[in-house]
Write a structure and sequence with these properties.
Elements (H helix, E strand, L loop, with lengths): L19 E5 L7 E3 L4 E6 L12 E10 L9 E5 L11 E4 L10 H6 L5 E7 H8 L9 E4 L4 E6 L14 E8 L5 E7 L3 E6 L7 E8 L2 E7 L5 E10 L7 E12 L1 H40 L12 E6 L11 E10 L4 E4 H4 L3 E4 L7 H7 L7 E6 L19 E10 L1
Length: 411
C-alpha cells in the first residue's frame, strides 16, 4: 500500500537531544511518551549494542498498522516488510533523518540499538502527509500478496463497468498487476470478483473471492472454466484524519549510506547475472518446447524459412489476402501450455489491421498473407516473429505462440 515509505534525506543538521518522560501515558497503556510527543514501548533493549547516527541506513523488520478504535478492535496491518521488503531477508531500509514533526518516530529510531525491538504510536496525518509527502491520506486498496497493489477508487459502480443491477459493490480497485498490466478489480458483497483487464478491449473476467478483508483468496476462471487461484490478498482500509498508526521495528543492522549502496549494487549485479542466465536458458529451451508441442498435437507441417508453422484447418473460397489490404480476423492466442492470453471472441468483435505494415507481430503478417478469405488456420509462431526476449504482458520472454485464426475479409 505504501510506496517509498521513508525518503532519503541528505545534508541534515545534527539531531536534537532526545528528552524522555519516564511515566506511562494514559492515552496508550504500556507506552511512555517523550517530551516531543512520541509514544514508545521497547519489547527488547540492549543499550550496550551499536546505536545509529544521523544519515545511517537502518536495516529493519518493520510493520505498520492502523490502530483499531475501541476496546478489542483489531489493528489493520498496512505494511509488513516480510511481505514487501526493499532488501533481501524481509528487510526495510530506513535512512535515519531528523524528526520533521512532534511525535515523529525518527526520534524513536535514534533511541534504538542493534537487536532492539520497539513500537511507536504516530499520527497518521503527519506520517503520510509530511514524512511521505502524499497529497492526501490513502483511501485504501486491494493488496495481492507477492503481486500488484490496486488502490481503491470507488465504493460505487463506475459508468464503464458492466454490472448486474442487483450487484452490491464492496469496492472498485484499479492498478498495475504483477505482469505489468493496468487493470481494475471489483469486489461485490456477494463474493463475486470481476477483473477488467486492459488486454484487448478489456472484457470483464468473472471469478470469486473468499475469506475476510485481512485474508482473501482471489480466484478467476481459467480457459477450461475452472476456478484458478490468483493469490492471497488483503483489503487495506482507508486512512482518516485523526487516525493513529502503530509502527513496530526490529533493528537488525546499521550501515553507512555508502556501504548500503555497495551492497545494493552487488545485489543488482547478481540479479542481472542470474536474469541473463535464466533468459539464456529460456532461449535455449524454446526449440525443444516447440517440437514437443508439434509432436503432442500431431502437426507434421514444415516450417517456413523464418520458422513459422502454418497449418490450414479449413479452406476458404475467397481471394488470397494481399499486402496493403485491410484484413479482418477472428482469432484466439495461446501459449504452448494451452493457456489463453487473448481472443477476439472474448473482446466481442473481430480484429482489423493493414497486412504487411508491421501493425502486428511479424508471424501474423507472414501467416495471414498465406490465407484466402474464408479460410481458417493455426499459426505456431517462434518468439523471433513474436515478442522475442521482451515478452508482453502475460507472455513470457522467448515464448512461441499458437494462434487459431479465421480470415473474414480482405479489402
Amino acid at each position: 500500500m505504501i510506496k517509498n515509505i521513508f525518503r532519503i534525506s541528505t545534508g541534515l543538521a545534527s539531531i536534537a537531544v532526545i528528552l524522555l518522560s519516564s511515566c506511562d501515558s494514559s492515552r496508550h497503556k504500556g507506552f511512555e511518551e517523550t517530551e516531543a510527543g512520541l509514544f514508545y514501548q521497547f519489547h527488547r533493549q540492549d543499550e550496550s549494542a551499536k546505536a545509529p547516527q544521523l544519515k545511517d541506513i537502518l536495516y529493519t523488520h518493520l510493520t505498520i498498522s492502523l490502530l483499531g478504535k475501541g476496546e478489542g478492535v483489531k489493528n489493520s496491518v498496512l505494511y509488513d516488510s516480510k511481505i514487501r521488503p526493499n532488501f533481501p531477508g524481509g528487510i526495510k531500509l530506513i535512512p535515519l533523518s531528523e524528526p520533521e514533526f512532534k511525535g515523529d518516530f525518527m526520534e524513536g529510531l535514534k533511541m534504538m540499538h542493534i537487536g532492539d525491538s520497539a513500537s511507536f504510536v504516530v499520527s497518521a496525518d503527519s506520517f503520510f502527509l509530511i514524512t511521505n509527502k502524499l497529497d492526501k491520506l490513502p483511501e485504501g486498496g486491494l493488496q495481492i500478496i507477492g503481486g500488484g497493489f490496486y488502490p481503491k477508487i470507488s465504493s460505487d459502480s463506475s459508468p464503464n463497468q458492466k454490472l448486474n443491477d442487483d450487484d452490491e459493490i464492496a469496492g472498485i480497485y484499479s492498478g498495475i498487476d504483477n505482469v505489468g498490466m493496468e487493470s481494475s478489480i471489483i469486489l461485490s458483497k456477494d463474493g463475486s470478483l470481476i477483473i477488467k483487464s486492459s488486454v484487448g478491449d478489456g472484457k470483464p473476467d468473472y471469478g470469486t473471492w473468499t475469506g475476510t478483508a485481512d485474508n482473501l483468496s482471489l480466484f478467476h476462471k481459467d480457459i477450461m472454466g475452472k476456478n484458478e487461484l490468483i493469490g492471497n490478498a488483503k483489503i487495506d482500509p482507508s486512512i482518516n484524519s485523526g487516525d493513529e498508526i502503530l509502527i513496530t521495528v526490529g533493528l537488525v543492522d546499521i550501515q553507512s549510506e555508502q556501504e548500503t549502496m555497495k551492497r545494493i549494487e552487488a545485489l543488482r549485479s547478481q540479479s542481472n547475472t542470474e536474469e541473463k542466465a535464466m533468459m539464456d536458458q529460456m532461449q535455449a529451451e524454446e526449440p525443444a518446447a516447440t517440437l514437443e508441442y508439434l509432436k503432442r498435437k500431431n502437426i507434421i507441417a514444415k516450417p517456413t524459412a523464418s520458422g513459422l508453422y502454418f497449418i490450414e484447418t479449413a479452406k476458404g473460397n475467397g481471394a488470397k489476402a494481399k499486402l496493403g489490404q485491410k484484413v479482418t480476423m477472428q482469432y484466439t492466442g495461446y501459449l504452448l501450455n494451452g493457456k489463453k492470453f487473448d481472443s477476439s471472441f472474448d473482446n466481442g468483435k473481430p480484429f482489423t489491421f493493414t497486412l504487411g505494415k508491421a501493425e502486428v507481430i511479424a508471424g501474423w503478417d507472414e501467416g495471414v498473407a498465406m490465407m484466402n478469405v474464408g479460410s481458417s488456420a493455426t499459426f505456431v509462431i517462434p518468439s523471433s516473429l513474436a515478442y522475442g526476449s521482451n515478452g508482453q504482458g502475460p507472455i513470457p520472454p522467448f515464448s512461441p505462440l499458437v494462434f487459431e485464426v479465421q480470415l473474414m475479409k480482405a479489402e
